[in-house]
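Record format v2
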Amino acid sequence: MGRNRTVGIGMDYSPMSKSAVRWAIDNLVEEGDRIVLIHVQSSKSDHPQKKLWEATGSPLIPLEEFKEINLSKLYGINPDPEVLSLLDTASKTKKVKVVSKIYWGDPREKLCNAVDELKLDSLVVGSRGLGAIKRVLLGSVSNYVVTNASCPVTVVKG
Amino acid sequence: MGRNRTVGIGMDYSPMSKSAVRWAIDNLVEEGDRIVLIHVQSSKSDHPQKKLWEATGSPLIPLEEFKEINLSKLYGINPDPEVLSLLDTASKTKKVKVVSKIYWGDPREKLCNAVDELKLDSLVVGSRGLGAIKRVLLGSVSNYVVTNASCPVTVVKG
């Protein structure tokens, strides 16, 4: 134990991505690991921090700060209390460090880039298998990262 | 600890599927869990046990038996000593139970069926991203199970 792995979780606050957080906490992370909650915002979004960080993605935001700053105003993100609570509990009971990062652009590319930039040992994403149209439009995110990310990828259903 | 999960691993003795075993042992399984090593043989293969078990898949074969019986003759499988050694060590040091099962048919369908039949909590498969032709022909196995299997699926690279 204590291998200090870094586990990325793709987060868009959909039910599937919440399942991804739950699965990662229940099955994968252990004491000493670090969770990076990865958000990818549309490149069309227009928020103050985007101008500063669009090229590189935001700095890593510690969970404590993530819970307090006005994310909606700065980044256009509305964190789900349930997700924050799950992460809060994990950071306390499992002694994992939780940070968050925000990218702008295509979720498929940005998630794959994040694997390399953040040197992720594992990436966990939700599957978006709900409905034929959603699957065609969005299901490809999980299939893309499974094929292209340079680390093991776990796809979790709702 | 002690959640008694069942973790399936797709196994064809390719480098990628060996990486899948390594990842599962190093990152996912813990004391009390059960590993099911899942083999899917071609429906064209012609071995004595196939006639008996083609419809349902073979019975679950404990690791000890799997190491000893003439698998090549009975099932057309040539287990890799490296994989057997990894599993042997895991069964001793992590106290996980290791069993094996053989199916005949389309790996995509059989792996998804196995998730339901064996009530898998997780499925781990190798990615076959080597070379464009292989990817087109075989990469779809991991993409298919990611999309269709009813449990979380982890895809591991070599």
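Chain A has a mean pLDDT of 91.
The two ends of chain A are 29 Å apart (CA to CA).
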